[in-house]
Design goal:
277 residues; 9 strands; alpha+beta; four-stranded mixed sheet; 6 helices
């Protein structure tokens, strides 16, 4: 006996009568496009949750490059901040001991005005913290910095990197392409650098891209992190003043938090909501 069909509306008709093959295909297609739209919207929401210029790692995101002179200039203009190096007449370098350099400050790292794209140096730990707070971020912890620098987290990294792999250097298996002293190959550095050792820093983000798509996690400038014993704070990654050994995860280096020198800079991090991890 054929099923009774009470055609009050199409939805009720489908509920009473078994759907035809055409209807089943139509429903399947509809559900597929709804699922696809949901996935697309979810992915877009996750992407929007990661601030521009940052890379998602595991529960947090970190700047892809060191904080630049241009970015620090915007902070200074907005807040009126004057750095310790500016108040004291200049930052320092280490020669036979620490030597103050007149006029060497965040906007003029070697005593002459730097370009906006250069990394900001001569910044103390507290000043780096203040910048990150102003930007709605924070300094990364030592553990976060290490996780971002050495372990690949991207789902589909480019050739040379594999998800889940831990590398010896922030540049991968080799230190080549970083701006370190002597054993990282040739890297273009800024022409105004005045130094008795090394070649000075490179423009932020101009050296070889490394683990997690980050630049200069190895060498260029040491980077302040939010970790360290007492008034000492740890710096990470090495710098143009040192060789490749200081780029490795097991290299421990701390400085007094009020240190403002030519080869220490920083980058910021931010915690991510669970939905965007």
């Amino acid at each position: 006996m054929k099923p009774t069909r009470l055609v009050i509306c199409p939805e009720i008709a489908l509920a009473i009568s078994p759907p035809t093959q055409v209807v089943r295909h139509a429903l399947t297609a509809a559900f597929f496009f709804l699922w696809l739209a949901a996935i697309t919207q979810s992915g877009a929401a996750r992407a929007q949750a990661v601030p521009e210029g940052m890379q998602s790692i595991s529960g947090f995101a970190i700047d892809r490059t060191e904080v630049s002179i241009g970015a620090f200039r915007r902070f200074v203009q907005a807040t009126g901040s004057v750095t310790q190096a500016e108040r004291s007449g200049g930052g320092s370098t280490y020669e036979a001991g620490w030597e103050q350099r007149a006029g060497w400050v965040w906007h003029s790292p070697y005593g002459k005005p730097g370009r906006d794209g250069e990394p900001a140096a001569h910044v103390t730990h507290g000043e780096a913290e203040a910048f990150c707070r102003w930007a709605g971020k924070r300094l990364p912890t030592d553990a976060e910095w290490g996780l971002a620098a050495y372990k690949e987290h991207r789902d589909a990294p480019p050739a040379g990197f594999s998800k889940g792999q831990t590398y010896r250097y922030p540049t991968g298996d080799s230190p080549m392409g970083a701006n370190c002293l002597g054993d990282c190959g040739s890297v273009a550095t800024v022409p105004e650098a005045v130094t008795s050792r090394g070649r000075g820093h490179a423009v932020a983000g101009s050296t070889r891209v490394g683990v997690n798509g980050l630049h200069d996690m190895g060498a260029n400038l040491w980077e302040w992190v939010d970790s360290g014993p007492g008034t000492e704070k740890r710096t990470r990654g090495g710098s143009w003043w040192y060789g490749a050994a200081s780029m490795q995860d097991n290299h421990v280096q701390t400085k007094p938090a009020n240190t403002a020198v030519v080869y220490i800079g920083f980058r910021c991090a931010v915690s991510l909501p669970a939905a965007s991890r």
